[in-house]
Queue: 2 jobs
Job 1
Amino acid sequence: MASVLKVNSLSKNFGSIKALDNLNLSISKGEVFGILGPNGSGKTTFLSVILGIKTATAGNFCWFEEPNDKVVNNKLGALLEVPYFYPYLSIEKNLRITALSRGYGLESIPEILHKVGLFERRKSPCYSLSLGMKQRLALAQTLLGNPEILVLDEPTNGLDPEGIADVRNIIKDQSYLGKTIIIASHNLDEIQKVCTHVVILKNGKNIAYGKVDDLLSINQVAIIESQQTNELSNILTSIKGCKILEKNVTGFVLTFDNQINVAEFSALLSNEGITLNRFEIRRPTLEELFLGIVKQTNS
Amino acid sequence: MKNLFRIELIKTIYYPTFWAILLLHSLFFVIIIALGANLDINIQGVQVFKLFAPNYIWGTTAWIASWFNLLLAIMIIVLTGNEIQYNTFRRQLLDGLNRNHLIIGKFALIAGLSLYVIFLVTVTGFIISLNSGEPSISGFFYGFKFVLILGVQSLAYMSLAMLTAIVFRNIALSIIVFLLYFIMIEPFIRIFFASNIDVYFPVKLISNLTPMPDFMGMISSELSAMQAVDPNSIAQLQSVPDGLSLGISVPLCLIYIVVFVSVSRILLKVRDF
C-alpha cells in the first residue's frame, strides 16, 4: 500500500531532554495508526514535528513522497493537544478562519457543524463553550474540507461518554472512507476499538510497533488465583518472559510471551506445591500489552 | 493572499478591544484638534488656533496624531500577543498557512491601520480647514506630505510593536518593554552617543518624522511681515539642528520597517510553536 508518511531517524531535543530519539516508522494509506505512550513519552512532540509546528533536531520525515519535512497541510486535518481558537469569535466564525486558511469555501461549515453536534450553538462565542464542546469544535476544524489524513491528539479529551462514542463513530466513518488516521491517546480501549496499527513510545523511543492484531498475539494474559501468593510471586518473578501486571490479595494478572508452554507452566506450579484456585488464559487487551511492554522496558 | 486579508479582518473586526482602542484613538485625536482649533491662547508667541490655518494644518494635525501612534502600537501588541497566547498562530499553521503568511497577515493589518490614520487626519484636517475662515484652495494641500509621512511613522511604530510582541510573547510584558524602550531605554543609550549619531536611533528617527510645528518659522513670517525684528536673528534661531532631513529620515525609517518585519519573520520561522 502507498506510504503516506515515512519517518527516518527523527530526533527532537529540548535542551538536554531527548523528546524523540531516533524514531523510524512508516504509515500507509488507509491505516488507523495509534500512538501510545505514558505521559512525556513524546507523542505530542512527534505529532508537532510531523505537522511542522516544531522543527526536528535530527532526521527527517516525508508526507506523500514530498521533499523532506514539507508538510502538506492542505491534505491534513489536525487536532493537537487542547483546542485552539479565538475565544471572542463564534463557533461559525472560527470555522470560517479555518476554511479560509485551508483555501476552502464556506459552504461545508453547516454540514460539519451538524456532524459534530454544534449547529444549534453556531452563533455562541467560544469562551462560553464547555470543554467537551470545544473539543467538538476542534474536531470540526479538523474535518473541515474533507482532508485525506486526520491527525488527532487525544481527540476524546473532555468528552462525555456520548461524545466519546460520537468521536469513535466519526473516526470509524472516516476510516471506512479510506482516510488515513493518526491518533495519539491515553484511552487504550478507544485505540483498540479503532486502530489497525500502533506504535508505543517511551522516552521518545519506539518500543513496539506494528499491526494491533500481530502485537496482541505475541503475548498472552493469565489470571492466576491462589492462597499461596507469596510463594507464587517468587516463582513467577523467576520465570523468563513472564511479567506481573497486577497483584492483589487473591492473585495475579500476568503477561507471558508465546514461547512459554501453558501446560509446562501449569506443571511447574504444581511441582512447586502451588494450588491454584483459578487459572485463566486469554488474549491481552491493548492496555495489558501496553503495560506489559512499558514494565518490561522499565526493568 | 485575499484569504489572508479576510482572515485578518474576521479576527479583528469582531474583537471588542480593537474597537475600544480605535474609538479612544479617534476620540482623543478629534477632541484635541477641535479644542486646539478653537483655543485662543498664545504659546511661544503663536496663537494656537493659527497652527490650524491652511499653511500649517497638515504639519500640526500630523504632529498631534503622532502622539496617539503609541495607542495603535499597543493595539498591535495586544492583537499579536493574543495569537501567541491563544495558540491561534499554531492553529493557523495546522490549517495550512505557513509562517510567512502569519507575518503578511499581521503586516496587512498594520498597513490598514496606517491608512486609517491617514484617513482620520485628512478628514479632520479637511473639516478644520473648511471652518478656519481662511479658505485657500491653492494652499489647501500645502504641507500634506506630513500626513503621508505620519502614515510611514505609524507603520514603523506598529512594526516595532509587532516585533516586541513576537520577541516577548506576553502582552503585558511586551507593552511594558515597548513603552520603557521609548521612554527610558533608548534615550538612556543615546546619552552615550554624539548628537550626529543619536539621530539614527530608531525611536528618535521615527519620532522626528513628524516634528513639532515650526513656531519659529511662524513667528518669523509674522514678524517679518511687520518688519519688527532683525531677520538674521530669526534665521539663527531656525538653524538649530533638530535631526535629519525628511529626504534622509523617511528612507531610513522604511529600512527600519523592513528590518522590524524581517526580524519578526525570522523569529517566527525558527521558533517552535
Job 2
Amino acid sequence: MPVYVRDRDIVVPGEPLASQLFKGEGAVYVEKRKIYAKALSVVEIDSESKVIRAIPLKKKYLPAKGDKVIGKIVDVGVTHWTVDINSPYPAILQATEVLPRPTDAARMDLSKILKPGDIVVAKVIVFDLTRDPLLTIKERGLGKITKGTLVQIDPAKIPRLIGKKGSMANMIRKALGVDLIVGKNGRVIIISDDREKEALAILIIRKIEREAHVSGLTDRIKKFLESYGIEVENNA
Amino acid sequence: MRSNNVVLINEEGLRVDGRRPNEMRPFKIIAGYLSNADGSAYIELGRNKIVAAVYGPREVHPKYLALPHRATVRCRYSMAPFSVEERKSPGRSRREIELSKVIREALEPAIFVEEYPRTVIDIFIQVLEADGGTRTASITAASVALADAGIPMRDLVAAIAVGKASDTLLLDLNGIEDQYGDGDMPIAIMPRYNLVTLFQADGIFAPEEIEEALKMAREAIYKLYEGQKEALKRKYLKIREEVLSSE
C-alpha cells in the first residue's frame, strides 16, 4: 500500500502522505493522484477505513455555523456590536439577536446592554467567507459572562481539550469541580470559587495545548491531577 | 565585467573563506524563534543572521487593501543599522523595498491564499547581520516562519545564490564575492514541484553557465529544504521526547 508516512508522524507543508487509494482528511490537498499535507500537522492513519488525516498543529479559527465561541465586544454600533472572536474575521452581533423581539434597536443605547470589553458566549448563525460571521446569544447557556477566568489557546488544540464526546473537558470539570466553557475559537472560561482549583485548571489547559500531539494525553492529565492529590473517577 | 585585482579564487581553486566553488556555507535554521508572532524562524547562513516573523491571516488595515477572493500577502525586509560594516541608515532604502517585493513574490506561489479571502498575511524579515545572500536566506527563513504559523501551503520555498568570478561559478556567494565578483544569480525553488519562484541575475552569464548554475542551486536548495523540514519538526518532536522520557 503506497503510504509515505507512519502514524503519528509530523509532516510539513508539501510532504506526500499517500496515494489516492486513501481518502485524505484534514489539512491535505490532492495533486496528480497523491495526497499531500498542506500545513504543519500530525498524521493519523486508519488503514481499515483507508483514511489518512493531517491534523494541523496550529491554525487560525475559521467560524462555522453552529460553533460556540467566546467573544469580546470591541465596538458598539447603532444596531449591532462588533465582536472579536479570535479569528481573521470580526463577528457581528445584531441587536435583534440580543433584545426581545419587538424592540426598536435604533432608539436604544446599545452600550447600556453590552459595552466594549464585555465577554460573551455566543453561537455562529452564518458564515461563508464573503461576509463577516453573524452571532446570536439567544439560546440557553449563551450570553454575557460576568465572572471566571479567560484562557486562550491555539484553536487547533480545542478538540483535544474537549476530548471524545467531551470526555476530557468532563474529566476536568468533575475532578476539579470547576465549570468550563469551551469556545471553538480557542478561548476557555473557567468558573470556580476556589482560586487554587482555577489555577490548576489553567495549568492543565496549558499542558493539553503543549502536549496535544503526543499520544496518551488523557492518562497524563489523570496522573497530573493525581500528583496534586485529586482523585479522578475511572469511567473511561 | 568589472575590472579588479581582488583574488577570489586562489591557485588551489579555493575561495576567500576556504570553500570550494560548489560548496555552500554551513547553515542553521530554528523554527518558532519568537513567541509573540504567529510563526517565526531564525536562520544562520555563514555569517548571515536573519529573523523572520509571520502574522496572520488577520484582519486587513487599511481596509482597501483587502482582496475579495484571496488573502493579501505583505512582506517587509529590513536590515538593522548594525547589520553591515558601515552603519546602514535605518530608513527604508530603495534596495529594501525591492527585496521586500521579490521575496513576497517568491513565497506567494507556495501559499493557498484563496483559503482566507479578505485577510492579510504579514511577513517581517529582519537582517541582524549580513554577509551576502540575505535575500535568499530570507526566503528560506520566511518560508519556515509561514509553515510555523500554520498557514496552508503547497510546499516550502528554499533559495540560494550562484555567482561568478574568474569564469568559475561559485555557489552561495559571501559578501566579498558578491561585491568583487562578476555576477550574482539568486534562485528560489519550491523543492517538491521543482519550480523556480525567484530568478534574478546581474552580471553576464552564458546560457550553459545558467544551466550549470541552476543545477548547483538545486542541489544546495535540497539541502536547505531538509534543514527546513527538520527545523519545523524538531520543535514538536522535542516536546514528544520530553513527555515520553518523563514517563
